[in-house]
Known about the structure:
By secondary structure, the chain is an alpha+beta fold. It has a two-stranded antiparallel sheet. It contains 2 helices and 2 strands. Helix 1 (about 15-30) packs across helix 2. The radius of gyration is 15 Å and the shape is extended. It has one domain.
Amino acid sequence: MVKSQKKRLNLDLTPEAYELLQRLANESGKNMAEVLRTGLALYGIAHEESHDGRKLGVVKDDRVIKEILIA
């Protein structure tokens, strides 16, 4: 993406959300913006699949252990 096409966003987070974001960034070796972009991409996939009647979930040993719900 060309730098001039980027948009800056200012947002407020609860202390808990900020701590989670900080922890995810630290554990993944990414910065907070990268973690947020990844989360947005995953939300986009879940949203798109939801519109097509499919669900997004976490699978372990061919078993869904967590389903991501999009309203």
